[in-house]
Design brief:
GO terms for molecular function: G protein-coupled receptor activity; photoreceptor activity. This is Long wavelength sensitive opsin. The chain is an all-alpha fold. Helix content is about 65%, strand content about 0%. A two-stranded antiparallel ribbon has the order 1-2. Helix 2 (about 85-115) packs antiparallel against helix 3 and helix 3 packs parallel to helix 5. The radius of gyration is 24 Å and the shape is elongated.
């Protein structure tokens, strides 16, 4: 149906309760979407129109922030020679994924919140759900790749296999193929994409009690949530351990030499890699804070352990999408070399004193190789 004008939904009362005069959250759903709506949602009254207005406003603001923020990250990393490193290709892929997430998610949901139901038809409902799942999957596995890269540099040291641009591109290609395979599966009968509880967005069907449908949510959760989480925890456990051991040896050596510190320009290289690892860890933590509530909703749905409300589903979904806004902010605050490039290209955005330094003396690093002496010490 057309999304233009002000359609009347009086004829769309396809729910059982509407015949008795009781309104439900399903009453405004267009007829061509009714086969996708689970009977579970018929028990809920319509959401207050104010909630739709708030949701539309929030997703619209998040969309603007994410598109501008991640667009700037892509532009700066692409146009700054010192940032064109193999490791930063992973960062660029993360920013591109976040950019695409909100570019495809924000506008359709704003329109649906205005009409208080899904108005784009079944095909776009499936595509909307797929895009949200696809870019979320790409984000987490890109972060897992970043963690592996940091582990390779900081923990393995001299024994590490050099991380080249070819390696980075192969990793990125693998992430996209892996994510695409998982997210197109519902189009071939393994689960499906259906309207969320407030009928203004679409996602996986976590209310279907059929075990084929349930198995998709369980296996998807394992490979797209728990597996990358364990991989990241493994990498950062040994990264922290290696950094702690290095710092301890530095302090002991300084004590023997009766000096305050052994920090030098060489030592700053390892310190820079550690700073980059901290940035990646912060980004990853934000991802899990954002997506965990939505995972809980999905698992609650398939196991039926408690009641899920339309408002809860959409806020958890919105919270997950908001993750696309965090990364440009994290890098803007925590990545000195990115901040320097941002200050050069967009000086009007600087709200503090100049932070520009000569690149040769910058303590940040986008490189993947640490000086040999520091690798040996680590």
């Amino acid at each position: 149906m057309s999304v233009m004008g002000h359609p009347s939904f009086a004829a769309y009362s396809g729910s059982p309760s509407s015949a008795s005069g009781n309104l439900t959250v399903v009453d405004k759903v267009p007829p061509d979407m009714m086969h996708l709506v689970d009977a579970y949602w018929y028990q809920f009254p319509p959401m207050n129109p104010l909630w739709h207005g708030i949701l539309g406003f929030v997703i619209g603001c998040l969309g603007v922030v994410s598109i501008i923020g991640n667009g700037m990250v892509l532009y700066i990393f692409a146009s700054t020679k010192s940032l064109k490193t193999p490791s930063n290709l992973l960062v660029v892929n993360l920013a591109f994924s976040d950019f695409c997430m909100m570019f495809t998610m924000a506008f359709p949901m704003v329109v649906n919140c205005y009409y208080e139901t899904w108005v784009w038809g079944p095909l776009f409902c499936g595509l909307y759900g797929m895009f949200g799942s696809l870019f979320g999957c790409i984000s987490i596995w890109t972060m897992a790749c970043i963690a592996l890269d940091r582990y390779n540099v900081i923990v393995k040291g001299l024994s590490a296999k050099p991380f080249t641009k070819k390696s980075a591109l192969l990793w990125i290609l693998g992430v996209w193929l892996f994510s695409t395979g998982w997210t197109i599966a519902p189009f071939f009968g393994w689960n499906r994409y259906v309207p969320e509880g407030n009928m203004a967005a679409c996602g996986t069907d976590y209310l279907n009690k059929d075990w084929l449908s349930r198995s998709y949510i369980i296996v998807y959760g394992i490979f797209v949530y728990f597996l990358p989480l364990m991989l990241i925890v493994y990498c950062y456990f040994f990264i922290v351990q290696a950094v702690a051991a290095h710092e301890k040896s530095m302090r002991e050596q300084a004590k023997k030499m009766n000096v305050a510190s052994l920090r030098s320009s060489e030592a700053q290289a390892t310190s820079a890699e550690c700073k980059l690892a901290k940035i990646a860890l912060m980004t990853i933590a934000l991802w899990f804070f954002a997506w965990t509530p939505y995972l809980i909703v999905n698992f609650t749905g398939i196991f039926g352990s408690s009641k899920i409300t339309p408002l809860a589903t959409i806020w958890c979904s919105l919270f997950a999408k908001a993750n696309a806004c965090y990364n440009p902010i994290v890098y803007g605050i925590s990545h000195p070399k990115y901040r320097q490039a941002l200050e050069k290209k967009f000086p009007s955005l600087v709200c503090a004193g100049s932070t520009i330094k000569d690149d040769a003396q910058s303590t940040t690093s986008g490189v993947t190789q640490v000086s040999e002496g520091e690798k040996a010490a680590a």
